[in-house]
Every structure is written in C-alpha cells, then in structure tokens.
Amino acid sequence: MEVLLGKTLEELQAVAQEVGLPRFAGKQLAEWIYVRRATSFDEMTNISLKGREALKARYTIGRHAPVAEAISKDGTKKYLFAISTSAGSANCQLSTVNYIESVYIPDNDRATLCVSTQAGCKMGCKFCMTGTLGFHGHLSAADILNQIFSIPDSDKLTNIVYMGEGEPMDNLDNVLRSLNAMTSAWGCAWSPKRITVSSVGLTKGLKRFIEESECHLAISLHNPFAMERQEVMPIEKVNHLSEVITLLKQYDWSHQRRVSFEYICWGGVNDTPKHANELLRLLKGLDCRINLIRFHAGVDQSFTSSNEQQMEWLRDYLTERGITTTIRRSRGEDILAACGMLVNALNK
Fold first, then answer.
1. 114, 121, 128, 339: the active-site residue
2. Residues 215 and 129 in one domain
3. Is 215 a catalytic residue?
4. Residues 40, 182 within the same domain
5. Which of 101, 165, 167, 333 is catalytic?
6. pLDDT 10s digits, 98-116
C-alpha cells in the first residue's frame, strides 16, 4: 500500500479526491498526520466512515514503533527501527527488512533526536562504525519522519539533527521531503532553525540543500589537509574539501542560519598547532563555528582521542582567533549511541 506520511498538502488533497472525498479533506488528512500524529484512519473522526474505509483500502499512514530500545546511564536512548528500503532506482524495492538506529538525547530543557537517512552508508569513513555496515538502501521520507513521530518522547523534542546512519546529501530527495513536512505550515510547522543536517561534503547535493532548505548545515571536516583527510574520509578523493568551502563561501551565513564543522579530535593526528592554523586559513572569511568531538573507539583501535587538555587548547586557540569553537559533550557511549558509533548487528 502507498504511504501517506511524507506527502505534501497538495498530494494529500489529490489522495482525498482519488477516494471520493472533497479536496478540503486533504487538509484534514495533513492535520491528522502531522499535527495530531494519528496512527490509524479510525482516529480521523471528522472524515466520513466511507471515506476512511476507502483510505484504508488504498493507503497506510506509515507509522510504526521501534522494535528495540537501549537506555544509557546518562539518559540517552537509542531506538532500533525496522524499515523497507530502496537501493538504486525509485522503482526498486528491496524485499528484505533492514534496520536503522536513531538516538534521543535529553539535556535539561533541550531534547534532541538524531535521525538516520539511510540503512548503512556508502561513504566508508574509517572512524565511523556505521561504515562497517555497508550500504543497504535509502530511507523514504516516511521512514525518516517515523523516527521523529514514533519514539515515546516525541512530544518533548526541541531539536532534530540528521546525523545518524547514512549521508543525507546522498538521499536528498527524501531528506528535503521530510524537512518540508517538518517545517511547512500545513505540516509540523517547526522552525528550520531547530533542525541541523550534516554532510561529509557532497557539493552537488549541498548546493541544492542550501538553496531549497533553511535548516542549519553541519559539515564533517575532521582534517583540514586534503591528503590526511583522504586517509580517513574516502570522499576527499572525488569531492575535495576545498570545493566544499568555496561553495559555502558563496552564501550568506551571517544571520539566523548557521554552518558548522564537525571535528573529531585524534591525539597527535589532527589536534596540533599546524592543523589549527590550517583550519584558520581554510575557513577565513566564512561565518561559521567548529564543534570538537571526542573520538569513541570501536572500529580501528589505531585511533585514540585527544586528551582533554589538548582539546581545550584547540578550542581556545581557534576561538581567540575568530572561529567560535566548542567541545561537544559525549552522550550514550555505553550503549554505542555516541557520534560515529551507530551500528547494529541485524544489518551486518
């Protein structure tokens, strides 16, 4: 059956007419799906019984609960969802079930959900456990939104980050569709400033994302030197960081919208004065910030995290020279929910 979650208002109006309902019923569908978060057509009491039965015969809402949950000692929660994915053309559906993870991070009056956009990932970053999964397919807009709608703490969410499994710019159609549903007046009506989308730096997708969305952007940088970055991020071989920075400098980031750079710190590898000065040179003239991240071992034990003193030095050195830099607090490491640790045995 065709899924309604992720459809636009115009598409829902067309659905209403297809099943014999008046066009305005499309707006009612949108309210039930995105505002009231209905999980069944039976809940839609302002739509006629005949109309609801017609909808049931052709469509499904697309909501499904997580199949497993893990809770960290710091309150972070990791959820496992079963999904059906498509790899290749839009008409190619995988017949097997795949699994993806999302992470709920409560922090005082802030509650963030880290959502996945693909099952596994093609990018193959050497420090990321998700890369060991290989690629199993793209998530539909419905499966992206379902992570947001179907966790038990959905009503507490204040922020969403597209930083889970997968590369958002490699599944951009579905990512933009989900963002449209989250931020449009007919949908969830969230401010785009509450949502951040990350990328390793696929320039074609980035350009379209910047021009079609007002959400924040985070770039996985991790090393300012091309050859060193290439050793841990294969994308550098075909999509150079210098090209990404050149693209970003063509846009205005001085107002509410923000561009930031994620930077995992490895002791003696990318946390030296040489790297700090190259970061300053590379990002000069770009209104941005840097988030320093502790490395969480799990894939390649040859990587070790920078110590706290060195990370604090790097933070202060960059901040004093004009780039606001922070150290991200690690969350959920004991349940493999921290940055770069999303991996589940069911997809291996």
1. 339
2. yes
3. no
4. no
5. 101
6. 899 999 999 999 999 999 9
